[in-house]
Amino acid sequence: MRPFSTRLNLGKLILGLALLSAVVALANTLHASYRVQREQLIGTTLEANRVYASKLAETTQNFIQSAQQQLAYSATALGQRTHDRGELEAEAARLQLQTNSFNSVLIVDPAGTVLATSPQSLALQGVTLNSRGNKDALDRREPFISDPYQSATGRLLVAISHPVFSAQGQYQGYVSGTIYLRERSILQTLLGKHYYRDGSYLYVVDRNGRILYHIEPNRVGQFAMENPAVLAVSKGHTGAQQVRNSHGVQMLAGYAPVPIVGWGVVAQRPADATLAALSTLMKAVIWNAIPLGVLSLLITWWFARRISLPLWQLARNVQNRDTGIAIRHVTGIRAWYYEVAHLKQALLYSFNLLQDRIGKLNRASMTDPLTGLQNRRGLQQGLEDWQARGQPFGIIALDIDRFKTINDRFGHAVGDAVILRIAQLMRDDSRDTDLLCRNGGEEFLILLPGIDTEASARIAERLRVQVAAEVFEEVGSVTVSLGVAHYPSYHEDPQQALRLADKALYMAKEQGRNRTVVHPAPERRGGA
């Protein structure tokens, strides 16, 4: 029998396969990690911008309502008696100077002639206006907010006007407050401080997609209807999506409408800024993996030599009687299969390790990065599992009272600390089976399996008292409002049951905050 020979070097084969498996496993792990983290960062940023735009839209709406109330009060005062020119000028000055709501104030008679202005430097007394805003205000004879137009002084502005009627109901003209769009105004006061150096910014558009406020002054007055976010918010929609701005930069935009005036607020952040930290993290992972990879290759090379040496000796001495038992085992398989089987086990171990890492990443994708509580994805999975098992559960919706004031006064770092502390109080007062979720911003959900409505209300009230008694660093006292509902007692659809708890939460807000409200239980129909 001729001696067994082969051109294949088993040691090199093992080393090559080990290297290939290590590279594939590492590349797959890095790719999966990058994709999961990228989607999570983008989703979190989009949701944060949507919530932020909604808050600023609410603030803008409150300002518009306040400005209309100021004008309504002044119009009532002007209509109750006849004023001379001095009194009209005094009222215009009072209306402009008592707050920073308006850049200028005009009092106009039914013919469109200016009776008084503030500041008087406008030099419009006695001038008959022919602007579109003046014509619309005279024609409507009702509270009115104009679209942007060019004024008699050449400024681009928006006018908020209120009609003036005498005690006998005779129309006497209108009083108007203006907001300059290209000069310092209340819009800059409300929105200008929300600019970040990472390229994030926000802007305001009217119902026609015309820009009313922008960090780039030359953009004011331009139309941006080609932007998908502007198109959506001009239709009254609230949401978030990826868009490209006028410079071609990919942005993560959240938007919300201001219903009272038809404006829209868009808050956006560059996608590159959001993903910059992720790129740095992935580079650090690769560099940290290189030494361990080199060490693994050295160990693999040493084991390859140790494994191939006895097999090579066995092949040369296959006719040796002392190796009879080994020969019977070898003749049943190919000469290289034994080593391949062990390499297969190593690969399986590597892939099991990979799956474990992917599982951890998937769990991380369902967890809120700030608090460690479940995020919306984790909440949805928990609801699906419980619904499949027919698990009833109590629902507590929680919202931190006046959280925007905390952020504005003390900064977002302090606001985050408040959120973290409340999340810890929720953990301390919960069971291992309870599902704790940060629903976004300062909103939380607590799902209590096997707990009825009354017990859920007691738990919610206990948590409310604990939060109210807690002393928060820098902030002092913080309160929360809570809404309670139950599934399936309140609704057979868990999502609808969650909405009922959310409605109860808003009832608590409307009733003065710092309280627990149980949503009224639905009436049950009697059987035959």
The percent of residues in helical segments reads 40-55%
Number of helices: 13
| Poorly predicted sequence stretches spanning 5 or more consecutive residues | 1-5, 317-323, 346-352
Give the overall shape. Answer: globular
Strand-residue proportion: 15-25%
Instruction: Give the beta-strand count.
Output: 16
| Arithmetic mean pLDDT | 82
Secondary-structure-based class equals alpha+beta
* N-to-C SSE string, H for helix and E for strand: HHEEHEEEEHEEHEEEHHHHEHHEEHEHE
| Cα-to-Cα separation, first versus last residue | 94 Å
Radius of gyration: 35 Å
Summarize the structure.
This protein is of the alpha+beta class. It contains 13 helices and 16 strands. Helix content is 50%, strand content 18%.
Please provide a written account of the structure.
The chain is α+β, with helices and mostly antiparallel strands and 528 residues long. Helices cover 50% and strands 18% of the residues. It has helices at 10-80, 85-97, 132-140, 186-191, 228-234, 271-316, 324-331, 337-365, 376-389, 403-410, 412-428, 453-469, 494-510; strands at residues 104-108, 114-118, 144-145, 149-150, 156-165, 171-180, 201-205, 211-213, 239-244, 250-258, 263-270, 393-400, 435-440, 443-449, 480-487, 516-518. The strands form three sheets. Strands 1, 2, 3, 4, 5 and 6 form a six-stranded antiparallel β-sheet that branches. Strands 8-7-11-10-9 form a five-stranded antiparallel β-sheet. A five-stranded mixed β-sheet has the order 13-14-12-15-16, with helices on both faces. Helix 1 packs antiparallel against helix 6. The chain is globular.
